[in-house]
Amino acid sequence: MPSYNILLLGSGGRESAIAWKLQQSPLCKNLFIAPGNPGTAQYGTNITLSVMDFEAIKKTCLDNKIDIVFSGPEDPLVAGFYDFFQNDSALRHIFVAGPSKEGAQLEGSKAFSKKFMQRHHIPTAAYREFTEANFEEGINYLKQHALPIVLKADGLAAGKGVVIAQTTNEAVEAFTAMIKESQFGDASKKVVVEEFLDGIELSVFVMTDGTHYILLPEAKDYKRIGEGDTGPNTGGMGAVSPVPFADNNFMKKVIQQIVEPTVNGLQKENITYKGIIFIGLIKVNGDPYVIEYNCRMGDPETEVVMPRLQNDLVDLLVKMKEGKLNEAIPQHDARTACTVMLVSEGYPGNYPKGRIMTGFEKVQNSILFHAGTTKKENEIVTNGGRVLAITSLGNNIKEALATSYSNAELIEYEGKYYRKDIGYEFL
Ligand code: AMP
Ligand code: GLY
User: Fold this and answer.
1) Are 39 and 10 in contact (CB under 8 A)?
2) Strand boundaries in 329-413, DSSP class E
3) In whole angstroms, how far apart are CA 238 and each of 14, 241, 291, 405?
4) Tens digits of residue pLDDT in 138-168
5) Ligand 1 touching residue 246 (CB < 6 A)
6) Where residue 69 sits, what CATH number does that domain have?
7) Residue 190: alpha-carbon gap to chain centroid
8) Taking a C-beta distance cutoff of 8 angstroms, is the pair 366, 390 a contact?
9) Is 165:171 a contact under the CB 8 Å cutoff?
10) 244 and 191 in one domain?
């Protein structure tokens, strides 16, 4: 049986879950995670480097005879990581499981993705795009538009580039800050203004080899810091999978109206894309609309997707490389997975780091996916806003959550916070 040396880029809870899954495969010879965290060190070898330092990644790949590279975060892909490997004869044989720079624009440019959806008749919110050149027209557009109204910085803005304005004044202010004051740097030189869609959100994960695709388990994440979905947006406070409203009938619409036109559209336009397409969608009156595309897995969705994915992940990556995903039969655990994210007090604003964490050994029946943790003198300490994802499987959401919540009590550090209402609308 062939086996592969694999390099996984990233250091969050998502990467912990991917590393956990990869190392279970008999096809995985050696797993490296760069830079990783104390959690990923349980599953492979951490290598200290920045995911944007392509030369350092090149050296790591050659030193360790890497066969497959998988990027957790979007930044390297949007910056042309795939193309960097293709354009280097020393690296070309290595499979980058991720889209080309052009394909990654589905996430890297909201304007690109909106135009792509228009070309392929994929349902999404109506929109206009504006820059400095048509700024005044933009202001007038905002003034006559229904409320609320959604403004999005075109480029990557670390998840902060979306404003949902409740008043025209707020919209004009945000629009002006983005375009005139470069609030998000170059990312907000162009702004997409779109209609507000009122519904319930779902994260759909498509794995494609450029021709065929399979769906990974779907998930729903909880983005707001406060219970009842209140307060500022975070990177994600928890997730559940499967999602009760994503029944067969709805998923059939998602596949026909969104997934297939997306995969076929990329192929028709000759956009090289062997990787993950994460479709953030919203269900409005029974129909799905795309909110956004991402070119990577979601966090914390991955922490519930991987535990439910029964296929060998390395085998799927190899089939992706070879254009044989049509030969894969998706297998999902019928049980429910829930994850609860423990965060640092103050998050998503300023938060302390270096708080000593204890209680890991007391945890039973959950998987702990480290996110913002680090090791300091043989102790695990907090090192980020989102600290630890606690994932459990159960026969239903209630059961899975009960296990995660009882274990959340056992992990201790000063300033621990977590939402106690993950999955609330399904209970
Ligand atoms: P994004 O960065 O595109 O994921 O947007 C962040 C969040 O803003 C999404 O997860 C949605 O909750 C919300 N959002 C974005 N676009 C819309 C829209 N057109 N209508 C309603 N909510 C939206
Ligand atoms: N959980 C949403 C994201 O990863 O963008």
Assistant:
1) no
2) 336-344, 367-370, 373-376, 379-382, 386-394
3) 12, 11, 19, 11
4) 899 999 988 999 999 888 887 778 889 999 9
5) no
6) 3.40.50.20
7) 23
8) yes
9) yes
10) no
Which of 88, 111, 140 marks a domain boundary?
Answer: 88
Residue 232 lies in a domain: yes
Give the atom of ligand 1 at the shortest distance from the alpha carbon of 197: 20
194 close to ligand 1 (CB < 6 Angstrom): yes
Q: Is 77 in the pocket of ligand 1 (CB under 6 A)?
A: no
List, as one string, the DSSP characters of 390-402.
EEEEESSHHHHHH
Ligand nearest to the CA of 280: 1
Ligand 1 pocket test, candidate residues 128, 223, 292, most atoms within 8 A of CB: 292
Q: Please name the residue whose Cα sits nearest to atom 5 of ligand 2.
A: 298
Q: How far is the CA of 313 from the centre of ligand 1 (A)?
A: 29
pLDDT tens-place string over residues 208-264: 999 999 999 999 999 999 999 999 889 899 999 999 999 999 999 999 999 999 999
User: Are β-strands 213-215 and 28-35 bridged in parallel, bridged antiparallel, or unpaired?
Assistant: unpaired
> What is the value of pTM for the model shown?
0.96
Give the count of domains, the chain. Answer: 3
**Within a 13 Å sphere around the CA of 393, how many CA atoms are in the beta-carbon half?**
10
Which atom of ligand 2 is nearest the CA belonging to 299? 4
- 281, 228, 234: which is closest to 427 by C-alpha? 228
Q: Counting ligands in written order, which one lies closest to the CA of residue 106?
A: 1
